[in-house]
Amino acid sequence: MNENGAKLEGVKRIADFLGVDESTVRRWIKNPKRGAPIRKLGGRYFAWEADLVNWLSGQGLLPA
Prior knowledge:
The protein is 42% helix and 17% strand. By secondary structure, it is α+β, with helices and mostly antiparallel strands. It has one domain: Arc Repressor Mutant, subunit A (Orthogonal Bundle). Strand 2 (39-41) and strand 3 form a beta hairpin. The termini are far apart. The mean pLDDT is 88. This is Helix-turn-helix domain-containing protein. It comes from Stagnihabitans tardus.
């Protein structure tokens, strides 16, 4: 863990953390205009918890 919180590896772990379906995460990944902080390394997606929370807050999907 670092200042960005835990590293979430894989679409399923990201979806579970956010409480959304895996298909929602995949839609966000396919739509770069959304700006989801989900990266791909070695064929596997990952994200940092804090980055996801900040992004959702900026989207108006979480209370500020």
